[in-house]
Amino acid sequence: MVEKFYLYWGLAVRSLNEYLDMEDRRSGDTVIAGILTLLLADIQQGSSFNWRCHLDAIYRLIMLRGGFYKVAESRSMEPLLLCFWSVAVMGNTTCPASDLFMTTFQLETLKFLPQQYITTVSPIQLCPVALFIELIKINHLRMRARRPDAASTKTFKMESFEILERINRFSPHRLAQSKSSNQEVWALVGLVYQAAVALYCILSLQSLSILPETPALRVQCATHGRLMQTLLVEALASKSLKRFMIWPLVVLGVEVVHGDASMRVFVAKELSELSQSVGSYVPLTAKRVLGEFWASGKTHWDACFDRPYAFTGQIAVDTSGLMPLYK
């Protein structure tokens, strides 16, 4: 199987290189789809430490075509752009603050993102759009806090509490009501991601001393952690949801460095089982990263991730819109 994987991987790379050498084809939809396919394959196989080079290539191709807004006019590109955004934004959450990628570009498209994708059939890793937007803002705030000309800590602190307040105001119930079916499932998804995004907000911004380490915030994190464990038991039992629970499990894994050993056992066990059930190396990578973090004696978010990681369960991108002959 491994030999066949690398055989077809090599053929795909060769074919893409041929297209990239053709000036009239190098920025076509199929080329972007091909690069995304390689990106997801590399992530799922755990075979590339430099998966961001694929994102950079796609970004350059998008710029060649007139920018994100121009490319997004094509309906066939919608699932490709969703995949691109998902990996880029979620990947920024699990990387050192000193190595964040395209955060300003992502922030600049915020006004456009919800209008384009709020009713899309393909969800962004199942993360509700309102919470996905907050992830982009948190990532950008982390980047700004690392820059030498960053604004005052007071300004950052105010922004961070505003983000946290919006996350806490998010209503999983309203999310579920907006769906025509499976409302209980969507309510569960909303609750999981609300708790996960809140934890990411607090822990990652405390890691940069943007948010203070107060007893009140520690209680809030512990409460989110206990709730997430309960919710994840239910979500991971669902065949349709489990693939989308890798990132929430990673977030919980960072939080449980403050908790008891039983919660760490839960996270490690679920990641191992998830790897087998979804056929991906990604959960095992997450388990290794978290295990090293737990053993390090460190507790801050940025101490967990020595380099950028992409903890996504997506294994393929929808290319049906690129092949009208098969419709």
Automatic annotation (TrEMBL):
PANTHER family: SIGMA-70 REGION 2 FAMILY PROTEIN, TRANSCRIPTION FACTOR (ACR-2), PUTATIVE-RELATED-RELATED. The lineage of its organism: Eukaryota, Fungi, Dikarya, Ascomycota, Pezizomycotina. The keyword Nucleus applies. This is Zn2Cys6 transcription factor. It comes from Trichoderma guizhouense. It comes from the Eukaryota. Keywords: Nucleus.
